[in-house]
Design a protein that fits this description.
Elements lengths: L2 E5 L4 H12 L3 E6 L12 E4 L5 H7 L6 E4 L7 H4 L5 H22 L4 E6 L29 H20 L3 E6 L2 E2 L12 H11 L5 E5 L5 E3 L1 E2 H13 L6 E3 L4 E3 H12 L4 E5 L13 H7 L7 H24 L1
Parallel strand pairs: 1-2, 1-4, 2-3, 4-5, 5-6, 6-11, 7-10, 8-13
Antiparallel strand pairs: 9-12
Helix pairs in contact: 4-5, 6-8, 6-10, 8-10
Bound molecules: nicotinamide-adenine-dinucleotide (NAD).
The site of nicotinamide-adenine-dinucleotide (NAD) has 25 residues, from α1, α4 and β5.
């Protein structure tokens, strides 16, 4: 039986990944600062610990695991990353985790390690066009990410790649583009656009109004969690190191995203555009490289993923309302 360690197993992607690895018959140890907020872990062992602490890292990474997935990061939606207020903690926390994990992985002889990077590594100036034709991997340089979160991801990509070159550590790196789905953060300021949109629409009375940051003409692509994991597992089983995009090529404006969710919810709402952090103007994945290397790329329509996500968020909103009433 193959053994895997999932760092960040109490988070959104980590929680789904543990389930997927269990279905594939792995023995799984999960580690996180906290238990999963929305579901019971499927891991064989779940350790609560702070990966900024090297002693914790040594405790959880105590044998040559077949696969290590490093997903733990201090992250959030636009409301957390783009205000500037959290720059120092975001950079320090995530860099400390990666410095610890990669070095101990090398020392204990981990067979393969995955690092989750982000579309946030791409330079700001090539994302000013809402009709962005896509972000090929090599366009990350010359570097100019729009947030310190993106700079830390770029640093850590290079860190893992240097361990690959200097110590032969088998590394795999993907740049995730806006992953969404059930069992993810949906309120509190760290949620991403699809979850925020589902929540606002679920909370609104029919024919009411929702607020949206910016003019809604900024574009993004969003990838449903199942396709993210499919790409991740295929990358892990391949001989390709990366970095490679794991994202969707279906680009929509935020207004179009809202319209899709309204249709799923069966609500007609007006949109009030207000000032707020928006990030770059246009972003979508370019999937040329993933298709070339893995013979696969995400292909499912955005609407399909939203149809699975909206009911889950609607249920969370309902539960929260009934808790407040008590
Ligand atoms: P998440 O916030 O749900 O999960 C991250 C987990 O890391 C959290 O459960 C958190 O508690 C844990 N963590 C943070 N600091 C820790 C520490 N010091 N010790 C132990 N655990 C710690 O985020 P997610 O959406 O599941 O993202 C997983 C990874 O993928 C992250 O590295 C993120 O940067 C990357 N990523 C995600 C997306 C996306 O759209 N979700 C896009 C690009 C990149």
């Amino acid at each position: 039986m193959k053994k895997a360690l999932v760092c960040g197993a109490g988070g959104f992607i980590g929680g789904h990944l543990v389930k997927r690895l269990k279905k594939e018959d792995f023995w799984v140890r999960g580690v996180d600062l906290k238990h999963h907020e929305f579901c019971e872990t499927a891991a064989d062992e779940f350790v609560i610990g702070d990966l900024r602490d090297p002693l914790v890292c040594k405790k959880v990474l105590d044998e040559p695991f077949d696969e290590v997935y490093q997903l733990a990061a201090d992250m959030g939606g636009a409301g957390y990353i783009f205000t500037g207020d959290n720059d120092a903690v975001v950079m320090h926390n995530s860099a400390a985790i990666n410095l610890n994990i990669v070095d101990i992985a090398k020392d204990v002889g981990v067979k393969k390690i995955f690092y989750s990077s982000s579309a946030c590594v791409y330079p700001q100036h090539i994302q000013e066009d809402p009709d962005n034709p896509g972000l090929p991997e090599d366009s990350a340089y010359p570097a100019h990410p729009d947030s310190e979160y993106g700079w830390e991801k770029l640093f850590s990509e290079r860190l893992y790649l240097s361990y690959y070159r200097n110590f032969g550590l088998e590394v795999r790196i993907a740049r995730f583009h806006n992953i969404f789905g059930p069992d993810g953060t949906w309120t509190g300021g760290r949620e991403k656009a699809p979850a925020a949109m589902c929540r606002k629409i679920a909370e609104a009375l029919n024919h009411g109004e929702i607020e949206m940051w910016g003019d809604g003409l900024q574009t993004r692509s969003f990838l449903y969690i199942d396709e993210c994991l499919e790409g991740l597992r295929k990358l892990m089983d391949s001989t390709f190191t990366g970095p490679v995009n794991i994202g969707s090529e279906e680009m929509v404006t935020i207004n179009q995203l809202a319209a899709m969710v309204m249709e799923i919810a069966g609500k007609e709402l007006s949109i009030r555009h207000i000032d707020g952090p928006q990030g770059v103007r246009g972003r979508k994945s370019d999937n040329t490289l993933i298709f070339e290397k893995l013979g696969w790329k995400p292909s499912r329509p955005l609407k399909e993923g939203l149809e699975k996500t909206y009911p889950w968020i609607e249920e969370q909103v309902r539960k929260q309302k009934s808790k407040l009433r008590k």
